[in-house]
Design goal:
Two copies of one chain form a homodimer. Chain A is α/β, with parallel strands linked by helices. Chain A is built from eleven helices and eleven strands. Chain A has two domains: 7-121, Rossmann fold; 140-335, P-loop containing nucleotide triphosphate hydrolases (Rossmann fold), CATH 3.40.50. In chain A, the strands form two sheets. A six-stranded parallel beta sheet of chain A has the order 7-8-6-9-10-11, sandwiched between helices. Chain A has a five-stranded parallel beta sheet with strand order 2-1-3-4-5, with helices on both faces. The first copy, chain A, starts with 6 loop residues before the first strand and ends with a helix. Chain A binds chain B through residues 131-136, 190-196, 198-200, 223-224, 226-235, 237-238, 255, 258, 260-261, 272, 275-276, 279-280, and chain B through 131-136, 190-196, 198-200, 223-224, 226-235, 237-238, 255, 258, 260-261, 272, 275-276, 279-280.
């Protein structure tokens, strides 16, 4: 699956900036892939891109129309159908991060066939996968892991890719979630594969490569999240990481959506991730800690990060607030 | 999903007893659910059951025709179709452990509808699941775990259920694989669910129950198998076990199908399973070790089991050779 870029980003009629986080992520990380945006009446979110119709976007080189906002229930609202059909008729592929599959709407399938365009359901994974082999492979890999869900693993991975490239390293982001897949134009939604194939999917997205090539793999969930830890473990084994970057939110009291589960201690989380990762890469090491400190004043955040750096002997940073160059440099020095 | 019992076991035309292991497992553990067997010309396997046609079996109370043998590729051979159609026309439901789904054959779907019978694809899971909650629930649960795949987790679970029932305990086998599901008539093929729902599926098959009720949950894979560990971890978290029984094959040199992966040390495997299980049940304990010693002489086997008993301070046994009563009694005494 390679989603043709650049994109026309469809914002629908969302009024809440959070609902547009996919579109915003694509625009933030790959502005060069965004030809324009399109919204419906009532939409209160803008990315500041030129407002284009599908036909105008096509004229300007757009290849895919991206449904870049979530809506309650994950269904395609009836009143979006006209716009999607317009886009197909204008010759654009459609990519959707909604739960409801485009390919389950016979009308869209027929129209897409007629206009020779593709439908991409990035929350779902169709192609057959192999089970993981655990066989050592060439190239370097760094995986983001976390104390919980939603602690910035995708952001950290993308920021690290950029910082490593700035240092002249051959770094490539590997996507495992829907927004990441739209940003990269490729990847596997790892939580949507059949459970037998989790590590196989991770091996597939980060194949053998040149010795000086780095895959920066987007992590998912946490080994300490009772709902999703299986996904995290399969991803950890299949990624065969040389380095881990631990992601965390400062002060988060409990595991996301589970108030009865206090958040794991960072120490235990680092330990268990390294312990498990050794199964497929005995040389795995921690390379850094990436913390969302946004709920704390700068001085407190800095003190906390200094404490983590001291304790784990790797750079700890808030990649939004203070950048992630320190972790990229750490990786550069490890291999030189 | 509840598969109506009793069964007519279809043996096809297999010549290799191993290929009939599903049928043999059902017959071994639930002989009362087997009205008869049916084979095609050339079949060299027999369970010693009366040979019946679908119509005869129906007359004798059979409710479901079970495709109880595997064949290369997992497809339904063309020459089995006539027999399957006969069975549907005789008014039997069909249950299959093949990779190819019965419900993907329009001819069978139509015929089943016409005769008001159901098609069960036990390798696949259709109903919607919820993600795991990790919330504590009532009842007692024991989960079989292992140093590897194919070390006797299903056998151990079924043997333990029988031994516990013999001691008057309310024990119930919970199936997570295809043979287990056919034996129990219900369950979820845990390696076939979407990875987001592994622990949710485990919660679903072993719901809250009476304080003195025991679910004996069939484990899958191993935390140390690089292909399947994600499944094992989700199952461990979702099962919320009070007790673990570690399964192992004496002398196995490396992880199944992965000659480059030496088998984990028992000590490390017990440790990591308990460590992870504590996430959803802080009181989890090891209750016993179940070892396949069949490749060793009896004296060597006994010496090895004695060593394990001494080291882990729980009963270690070969449940085929020496029975599993010791582990059932250990569990009985833990709660009394």
């Amino acid at each position: 699956m390679q989603i043709p870029q650049p994109y026309l980003l469809f914002l629908g009629d969302v009024t809440d900036p959070l609902s547009a986080k996919t579109a915003r992520g694509i625009h933030a990380w790959r502005p060069e892939t965004c030809v324009g945006q399109m919204h419906l009446e009532g939409c209160q979110v803008s990315l500041g891109l030129p407002e284009l119709t599908p036909a105008q976007a096509k004229d300007q080189g757009a290849k895919t129309f991206v449904l870049g906002t979530a809506n309650a229930g994950g269904y395609i609202p009836e009143h979006w159908m006209t716009v999607i059909k317009d886009a197909i008729e204008a010759g654009l592929n459609i990519a959707s991060g909604l739960h409801q599959k485009l390919v389950d709407v016979p009308e869209l399938v027929a129209l897409a066939k007629q206009h020779d365009v593709a439908l991409f359901d990035v929350r779902h994974h169709q192609p057959a996968l192999k089970v993981g082999s655990g066989l050592p492979r060439s190239g370097k890999r760094v995986l983001t892991v976390g104390t919980d869900c939603a602690v910035g693993k995708m952001y950290t991975s993308l920021a690290l890719e950029a910082a490593m490239q700035k240092l002249g390293m051959k770094a490539e982001f590997r996507a495992t979630g829907q927004t990441g897949i739209l940003v990269a134009g490729a990847g596997i939604p790892i939580d949507a594969v059949v459970s037998d194939f989790i590590s196989g999917a991770a091996e597939w997205i980060s194949p053998a490569n040149d010795a000086d090539h780095w895959d920066v793999i987007e992590g998912q969930g946490s080994l300490f999240h009772p709902s999703y830890a299986g996904v995290s473990l399969g991803l950890l084994h299949g990624s065969q990481p040389d380095y881990l970057v631990m992601c965390h939110e400062m002060g988060r009291p409990h595991t996301r959506h589970l108030p009865h589960h206090p958040l794991v201690e960072m120490e235990d989380c680092v330990y268990l991730n390294l312990y498990n990762a050794r199964l497929t890469n005995p040389n795995v090491q921690l390379a850094g800690i990436s913390v969302n400190t946004s709920n704390y004043p700068e001085e407190e955040a800095k003190a906390y990060l200094a404490e983590l750096t001291e304790k784990f002997q790797v750079p700890a940073t808030d990649s939004v607030r203070f950048g992630i160059d320190a972790i990229a440099e750490f990786l550069l020095h490890q291999v030189n």
